[in-house]
Amino acid sequence: MIGHLRKKRIWLAAIVLVAGAALLFAAFGSSAPTPPQFKTATLTRGTLEKTIASTGTLAAVETVEVGTQISGTIEDLKVDYNSTVKKGDLLARIDAALYEAALSEAQAGVEKAKATLAEAEETLQRDQPLYVKGYLSAQEFAPSRTAVATAKAGLSSAEAALLRAQTNLDYTVIRSPIDGTVIERSVEAGQTVAASLNTPTLFILARDLKQMQIEVNVDESDIGLIRKGQPVRFTVQAWPEEKFNGEVTQIRLQPTTISNVVNYTVLVKAENDDGKLLPGMTATVDFVVARLDEALLVPNAALRFSLDDGSGGSNDRRHLYTFDTFGAPAAVEVEPGESDGLVTAVNGEKLHEGMQVIVGLENASASSSGSKNLFSFMRPPRPPSGGGK
Asked: What are the backbone dihedrals phi and psi of residue 290, each rounded to the nearest 5 degrees, phi first?
């Protein structure tokens, strides 16, 4: 009987121990810190470029507007869009009938003025001896001299009218002032053009479409980083997969205000040997501000990551976190350099290509549980404050 009671007590004690262990596990085991999972990235070696992005419009380096200085009807057109012309080539002809008539009239005016002058000089030669001998008074002789001077002036005026008529007739033939390509034609055969105070534009010629330029608007916050001779890359919508190269040739000092932002016009020269670039195309331009070759590159997130234990500490962008030999996070001092907004060039004695660095926590729950749990996993607890023992 006594043995039976002893066995029963032993079983009860065992049950109490098991229940107590279960309660302890439920109370303390579930609150134990969970080892955090980190997102990592690899240090790579490559080329870093810092750029300024903007947009601009392609245009020919030099264009010439060809107009007319006289009014009339376009009688004949010799060129069309994209026509290649040489200097002096005929572009168009204006009906010359009125101007030929004006030239004939001016020529007749010159002949008439010459005849008038000859008659006046003959009269002067006849009256001169009579005046010398006293047969004519000075008052009587004066009209003869005046007639000669008037006739000479009339001849000069007639010759000027002849020159004007000849020039206007020459203007009926419109020729190319340069070697180039016709990129715009504003008239049709039979159309009447009127030259008044403003000369109408008939054609626009581009001197050389193998040399193009981009007029880029750069705002005042970035203009200080632009310099003459700076390399440029750009793309156009017609060839989205192809990158073209250019060079800054001019920074114009005259500002323009667009949407309350001060902008400056920057000219970029680009080669166009294959003719893919056309006037008027919109170019997306990247000015290469800085370039580093064979640099150690790290994602910017790694420079932002910090093991903050709630004391207010944060990454000063001069540290990276990697893993020590025990697999725990360890800080490494770095010297950050240029950044393109995604990666940063870094230097440091302990850095090497292929090194794994921490860029963040693997999931949001680990992050939201607080960095205090992170430190309780990696560091021993701090002694209580206040001088207690």
From this structure: -145, 150
